[in-house]
Amino acid sequence: MRIDRDLGRFRDIVRGKVRRDLRKHMSSNELVGKQGKKLVSIPLPQIGIPRLRYGDNKKGVGQGDGQGEGPGQGQEAGDAPGEHLLEVEFTVQELAEIMGEELELPRIEPKGESQAQTTKNIYKGIAKTGPESLRHFKRTYRQALRRTIASGTFNPERPVIVPIKEDKRYRTFVPETRPRSAAVILYMMDVSGSMGQEQKEIVRAQAFWLDAWIRLHYEDVETRFIIHDAAAREVDRDTFFRTRESGGTLISSAYKLAIEILEKEYPREAWNIYPFHFSDGDNWSKSDTQLCIQLLRDKLIPWSNQFSYAQVDSQYGSGQFIKDLEGTFVEEDKVVTSRVPSRDAIMDSIKTLLAAGR
């Protein structure tokens, strides 16, 4: 139908517009804030809506200055066109695909399958009994036709076929359990006093896009959230982005808790593991940094598809931790780091973190 073709063309135009403005959308939490369970609403103020223009015709219907008096009078009319916001809904999967195209990201190849399995009904055959919801109408009609012909009551000039109970046939199925490709994302963030609200908003935007891209490649995705200052604890998503503490920073506390969660719940032979750590680069001491490196080298890196560290610049943070990681793991492909000096760098950081396709 023509309306379907027109809608398809419109979607292509909007998709191209979103792609051209992707850096702006990725740096803005307005998009994240409009996220529903399955859809994301994107405002596109640049798409114009047709407007009527009036000339200086002095005659005919509608003549006059058009300005009312008395109660209910609106604000004074201006001569500048207003800005019209058009909101278009995309699925998170569509946005991930647009990002992948624009950033030229390689597809992720899952390395294992989850022990958590899914059950699917596989239809295997036909039976004479069963629930009406599984009645096979074609087979039932065929059986009724055979019976009618065999009994000699079939009239080709008036071929009325009425199935009876003995004619009914039903589909049979067998529940089949299959493994599903699965991933767990571990988000870790420093919430000490040096990480302000702006830094958390940057982390929130990055987490949205990282989540969307990984979910595009796996049937099952679980997310866990760890916050830390001098101690670490697991929290829900909302608490993760809202909490701020005033204490110092021991990064190793987050890595220890991540390892504990993985050991208890996510066997590495079955799960694709993605730890993401966000910090401004401060750590309490060199000895704790050495402990972090040991925990990474011995467990987190070998267990993970990739360990990612994104350092969000803060006026209070020293920025040292990224230097320690890069200096230690310079030849380790599974360790990826990025610096995020401002919101404008979110898109570049995401591309760096996802460029390897692990």
Describe this structure in words.
The protein is an alpha/beta fold and 358 residues long. The protein folds into three domains: 1-48 and 84-104, no CATH class; 116-176, no CATH class; 181-354, Rossmann fold. It is 37% helix and 23% strand. Strands 3, 4, 5, 6, 7, 8 and 9 form a seven-stranded mixed sheet that branches. β5 (220-228) and β6 form a beta hairpin. α4 crosses α6 (197-215), α6 (197-215) packs across α11 and α8 (251-265) packs parallel to α9 (286-303). The longest helix is centred in the first third of the chain and has 19 residues, at 2-20. It is elongated and about 95 Å long. Mean pLDDT is 81; it is low at 66-75 and 77-85.
What is this structure's SSE topology?
Layout: H1 2-20, H2 22-27, H3 29-33, E1 39-44, E2 86-91, H4 92-103, E3 113-127, H5 137-151, E4 170-190, H6 197-215, E5 220-228, E6 232-235, H7 237-242, H8 251-265, E7 272-279, H9 286-303, E8 307-312, H10 320-328, E9 335-340, H11 346-354
Parallel strand pairs: 4-5, 4-7, 7-8, 8-9
Antiparallel strand pairs: 1-2, 3-4, 5-6
Helix pairs in contact: 4-6, 6-11, 8-9
Can you give me a brief rundown of this structure?
The chain is an alpha/beta fold and 358 residues long.
Categorize the overall geometry. elongated
Which sequence of SSEs, written as H and E, runs from N to C? HHHEEHEHEHEEHHEHEHEH
CATH T-level topology of the largest domain = Rossmann fold
How many separate domains? 3
Radius of gyration equals: 30 Å
- Architecture of the largest domain, according to CATH? 3-Layer(aba) Sandwich
Count of DSSP E strands? 9
The pLDDT mean sits at 81
For the record, the CATH class of the largest domain is Alpha Beta
Class from secondary-structure proportions:
alpha/beta
* Alpha-carbon distance between the two ends: 42 Å
Assembly type of the chains comes to single chain
Strand content: 15-25%
Number of helices: 11
Low-confidence stretches: 66-75, 77-85
Q: Report the biggest beta sheet as strand number plus sense, adding barrel if it closes.
A: 7 strands, mixed
**CATH homology superfamily of the largest domain:** von Willebrand factor, type A domain
- What proportion of the residues is helical, as a percent range? 25-40%
